[in-house]
Specification:
The protein is of the alpha+beta class. Helix content is about 35%, strand content about 20%. The protein binds (2S)-amino(hydroxy)ethanoic acid (HGY) and manganese (II) ion (2 copies). One manganese (II) ion (MN) binds next to loops.
């Protein structure tokens, strides 16, 4: 049996790194806090007898040897980077659940045929550099390594330089090796499991995503002298576009999710009309065709607003991810493992994106969700219970061992 208290204690230790006054965490990708959390994980993994490999974009693989070293590994893990006002469990749970599986197998002296890798993916959140799940996407060959290295944050610091600075520019090639199976534990980041009173979710899939960067160009001007009917106010245009984007989503039933949340205004001065406003759109839906229809509706609405206001507009697509169906065998393994332990389990669908969504094309992939309080995440108030975290980790142990010993 996994050790509930040790698992919880590891979370509380990890949550001290980048802790915020309101009880959350801030560990932006490749920041000093990210480095410290990586260092802590590696020290724990080494204490648990793992050998460490780091690839060229900083993905960490902590390997527990199997009896057959030639066998492809079973991999489990998630991410340690967080949102700026993130929670203590988003990402960290998947990494620490993997660590608890290894610690428990060590305690029991249990060997597995295949090696087990605990993975820490680089920059899952994507809130500092340009895209989400950069580490797992490079690993899966979905984006170019050099393109990722060149990505810059709002201060102009590059991914590559920051990776070097924190000492995690590894030497291992990114990906390219066979994987027996991949399982990722994560908090649901939604309200369903808690509402149903169910501690474990067998995740059947995740919705598709289309994300954009919109640049609206107007003309700087004096806030006191330019008459209201002669302005080219890029922020006002962007605000009208944000409202139109929201309304476009409600043309569908149920509506897709469409979020405008990262906005940069230039010159961002109280008494100067904004000459340029740049904002992001994050849209998601389980149906890829309707998500494309939403893109077309949002784009048309934004361009019409720009034309009516005499503003320039440029809409750049920054990422597309198709909806994901996880491997039926992995999903069923989660259901069976929960049942065998008399742990209530239900099928769930992920509104959030995860590194597992990038690995699903490479290997049989499954996810295990546990409830989070009121479904809140990407929020300092994010919370989970020791019992739920333990239940999900117990199921993870059983599916990882089953996969590692399968033919
Ligand atoms: O944005 C996402 O879906 C993930 O939680 N980072
Ligand atoms: Mn996450
Ligand atoms: Mn997240």
């Amino acid at each position: 049996m996994i050790n509930r208290d040790r698992l919880w204690q590891s979370h509380m230790e990890m949550a001290k790194i980048g802790a915020t006054p309101a009880g959350g965490v801030c560990r932006l990708a490749l920041s000093d806090e990210d480095k410290v959390s990586r260092d802590l994980f590696i020290s724990w993994a080494r204490e648990a007898g793992c050998t460490i490999r780091i690839d060229r974009v900083g993905n960490i693989f902590a390997r527990r040897a199997g009896t057959d070293p030639s066998s492809p590994p079973v991999i489990t893990g998630s991410h340690l980077d967080t949102q700026p006002l993130g929670g203590r469990f988003d990402g960290a749970y998947g990494v620490l659940a993997g660590l608890e599986v290894v610690r428990t197998l060590n305690d029991a002296g249990t060997e597995t045929r295949a090696p087990i890798d605990i993975v820490v993916w680089t920059d899952e959140e994507g809130c500092r550099f340009s895209s989400k799940t950069m580490g797992s996407m490079v690993f899966a060959g979905k984006i170019d390594e050099d393109e990722v290295r060149a990505a810059t944050d709002p201060d102009g610091k590059s991914f590559g330089a920051e990776l070097e600075r924190i000492g995690y520019a590894g030497s291992e090639a990114c990906g390219g090796f066979p994987i027996k199976a991949y399982f990722e534990n994560h908090i649901e980041q939604g309200p369903l499991l808690e509402q149903e009173g169910i501690p474990v979710g067998a995740v059947v899939g995740a919705q598709g995503q289309r994300c954009f960067l919109v640049t609206v160009t107007g003309e700087e001007g004096h806030a006191g002298t330019v008459p209201m009917d002669q302005r080219k106010d890029s922020f006002l245009g962007a605000a009208r576009m944000a409202d139109a984007i929201n309304r476009a989503a409600f043309q569908f039933d149920p509506p897709p999710v469409a979020t405008v949340a990262h906005v940069r205004v230039r010159p961002n001065s109280r008494n100067t009309i904004s000459g340029e406003t740049v904002f992001t759109i994050d849209s998601r839906y389980p149906d890829a065709d309707k998500l494309l229809q939403l893109e077309e509706a949002m784009s048309a609405a934004c361009k019409e607003i720009a034309d009516n206001m005499g503003l320039g507009i440029e809409i750049a697509r920054t990422s597309i991810a198709a909806p994901v169906q996880f491997n039926a065998g992995c999903v069923d393994a989660v259901r069976r493992a929960a049942e065998a332990r008399d742990i209530p389990c239900m099928d769930v669908y992920s509104g959030a994106g995860h590194d597992a969504c990038k690995i699903a094309d490479l290997a049989p992939t499954g996810m295990i969700f546990v409830p989070c309080e009121r479904g809140i995440s990407h929020n300092e108030a994010e919370n989970a219970t020791p019992d739920d975290l333990a239940a999900g980790t117990q199921v993870l142990l059983d599916v990882v061992v089953e996969a590692a010993n399968a033919d």
